[in-house]
């Protein structure tokens, strides 16, 4: 009797696992990817922004003054 109850419990748990909706896990994974991409973009803009600002300032200094 106990073996039958254990078997039915295991089958019930396996059935619940099979019917589990995995869209939530996928959404979390996409959210993590988007956040990592956003962090990379922010870091790139910060690093290149400073370099571009310095380059434009250098070029502006070399241009003749406008009368």
Offer a concise description of the structure:
With 67 residues, the chain is an all-alpha fold.
Spell out the key features of this protein:
membrane; transmembrane; mainly alpha; single chain; Flp family type IVb pilin; Flp_Fap; transmembrane helix
For the termini, the CA-CA separation is: 101 Å
Shape: rod-shaped
- The helix content, as a percent range, equals over 70%
How much of the sequence lies in strands comes to under 5%
Oligomer: single chain
What Rg do the Cα atoms give?
30 Å
Can you count the beta strands? Answer: 0
Helix count from the secondary structure assignment: 2
Low-confidence stretches: none
Question: What is the element string, with H for helices and E for strands?
Answer: HH
Mean pLDDT: 82
Largest sheet data: none
> Structural class of the helix and strand makeup?
mainly alpha
List the helices and strands and how they pair.
Blueprint: H1 2-18, H2 23-62
Keywords: Membrane, Transmembrane, Transmembrane helix
Transmembrane segments: 27-48
Pfam families: Flp_Fap
Structure, explained:
This is Flp family type IVb pilin. The chain crosses the membrane at residues 27-48. InterPro entries: Flp_Fap (IPR007047). It comes from Nocardioides koreensis. Keywords: Membrane, Transmembrane, Transmembrane helix. By secondary structure, the chain is mainly alpha-helical. Helix content is 85%, strand content 0%. The chain has helices spanning 2-18, 23-62. The radius of gyration is 30 Å and the shape is rod-shaped.
